[in-house]
Write a structure and sequence with these properties.
Blueprint: H1 15-26, H2 34-39, E1 52-58, H3 76-79, E2 84-86, E3 93-95, H4 99-102, E4 108-114, H5 121-130, H6 152-159, E5 169-172, E6 199-200, E7 219-220, E8 224-225, H7 246-263, H8 270-287, H9 289-295, H10 302-308, H11 312-325, E9 330-334, H12 347-372, E10 379-385, E11 388-389, E12 406-407, E13 411-416, E14 424-426, E15 428-429, E16 436-438, H13 443-453, E17 461-463, E18 469-471
Parallel strand pairs: 1-9, 1-10, 4-14, 5-6, 5-9
Antiparallel strand pairs: 2-3, 4-13, 7-8, 10-13, 11-12, 15-16, 17-18
Helix pairs in contact: 9-11, 11-12
Length: 482
């Protein structure tokens, strides 16, 4: 039958779920009936508390050995240079360069056994951003394709209600782009249609030679710190152009509405209607104060800015907090473009100096901020990459210092808030940190955990142009987190 990625497997569901899904289809429920769907959710894993999700994505692949699953007893070629430190929770240790998170272990949990069979960046992004392990037919790592699985953010864009003139789902601070300029697949709506592509808040300018939390931690994998970095986090201005007042926008929209009404009876296609909905959302963003306020981190008090860090990692997570506070259901935060966490070479100095410190500070500040505002219990935080790293430390051809290669067989996933029981570890890896040793989890289970936190039941489906239902759940929410 070939490798798992070469098969197209239909999801396996129970007879009860199938009957429920069929009933929903007969009633015409799906994207436009989220409230009714949520009422059917029942006591799912995290539904009772969570309202929003922040998905922190570490493009490139976080090394489990250098973060949340150290192996101090392993041999030198596996153990690595970093030491474990105790957390606030007895029996749980993490990397010495994550001291702020260690002090907050009462708020977070770890899954040390998430696994999939791929070691390629583009494939890993497709899998971990969509929550689907089998690859879509005709998948290519060369870029996005219409037949790809929809990303979780695209599904939330379609299924969740907007609030306060903000879209239901947002990606920031940039699209994920390879240093060659190739847009990485897995981020978009794929077979759902472009009208459900996520809202990307483009707050940075792509630079093929820049990595990390710039400007303070801008680095090159081989050369280290980039001096006098010109990379900045600058949220896009949503102000109206000079001379274009709200009244003039309103007048123009009335004219457009009149013209549109004259031809609407000729445009019955669903994709046209969906595009119109997308356009109205864009207008709401342009004219609404909520979006401008959420993105304006420059005017946040200095204490808060310092707590998060005045860099792309900190400011991105600060914007994420402000967005969920104002009703955005799912925010994906890409902590590092250009596969920043791809630590093949100089892994230990780069992680120690440029990657772990700003991540540690920013995520800790997010936990504190949400907790102080009474929002942590209703906001699920998930942090993962497209894969983990190899147990063996190796030297990249031409590299001066060693690192670890791609490794889909196991990675550690960080979860917090949203009803997650702090100080919890689900699953384990083997003594070398190479494969799950207990309670293996899949990308499908992680996606189900996210959908459950959003209040979407297992019967939720989206419908294609032929009105065929496509269930969004392909696994079960991860057990043991609550």
């Amino acid at each position: 039958m070939g490798p798992a990625g070469d098969r197209f497997d239909h999801p396996q569901i129970s007879r009860r779920t199938a009957v429920q899904a069929g009933a929903i289809g007969l009633l015409g429920l799906g994207m436009n009936h989220v409230t009714a769907l949520r009422a059917l959710a029942g006591p799912n894993q995290l539904t009772a508390r969570a309202k929003s999700v922040i998905y922190i994505f570490l493009s490139g692949g976080l090394a489990q050995h250098e973060s949340f699953d150290l192996k101090p007893e392993a041999k030198d070629s596996i153990r690595g240079e970093f030491q474990p430190i105790d957390t606030q929770t007895a029996g749980i240790q993490i990397c010495e360069h994550l001291p702020m998170l260690a002090a907050r272990s009462n708020h977070w949990a770890l899954v040390r056994s998430l696994t999939h069979p791929y070691n390629d960046h583009s494939v890993g992004h497709m899998v971990m951003l969509s929550g689907r392990t089998p690859l879509p037919p005709g998948f290519s790592g060369g870029g996005p394709r219409p037949g790809n699985w929809p990303s979780m953010v695209s599904l939330a864009t379609a299924l969740m209600r907007p609030a306060n003139n903000l879209p239901p789902a947002v990606v920031l601070p940039e699209k994920l782009i390879h240093r060659t300029g190739r847009v990485i697949p897995g981020q978009f709506a794929g077979r759902m249609g472009k009208q459900y592509d996520p809202w990307f808040v483009e707050a940075t300018n792509f630079n093929a030679l820049s990595y990390g939390a710039y400007p303070d931690y801008d680095f090159h994998h081989e050369k280290g710190l980039v001096e006098n970095s010109e990379q900045l986090f600058q949220a896009p201005s949503l102000k109206l152009p000079d001379g274009l007042t709200r009244r003039r926008v309103s007048d123009r929209l009335q004219l457009v509405s009149q013209l549109t009404a004259q031809r609407r009876h000729l445009e019955a296609a669903a994709d046209v209607q969906d595009f119109d909905r997308h356009r109205q959302s864009a207008i709401s963003l342009l004219t609404g104060a909520q979006a401008q306020f959420a993105l304006d981190v420059e005017n946040v008090d200095s204490k808060t800015q310092d707590a998060y860090g005045r860099n792309t990692f900190g400011r991105s997570l600060l914007v994420a907090r402000r967005l969920v506070e104002r009703g955005v259901s799912l925010v994906q935060v890409n902590l590092g473009n250009n596969e920043t966490w791809d630590t093949h070479q100089s892994a230990f100095p780069n992680l120690k100096k440029f990657l772990l410190p700003p991540m540690d500070r920013a995520v800790s500040a997010l936990l504190d901020d949400l907790h102080d505002r009474g929002l942590l219990d209703e906001t699920l935080i998930v942090m993962a990459g497209e894969f983990g790293r190899t147990p063996n430390i190796t030297a990249l051809d031409g590299g001066k210092l060693p690192g670890r290669n791609h490794w889909g067989a196991v990675q550690s996933v960080f979860l917090a808030g949203g009803g997650v029981r702090g100080g919890t570890v689900v699953g384990s890896s083997d003594p070398d940190g190479g494969y799950p040793a207990s309670d293996p989890q899949t990308p499908e289970n992680l996606a189900a955990t996210i959908y459950s936190a959003l209040g979407l039941p297992a019967t939720t489906a989206w419908y294609d142009k032929l009105n065929r239902p496509h269930l969004i759940y392909h696994g079960e929410p991860i057990g043991g987190l609550t």
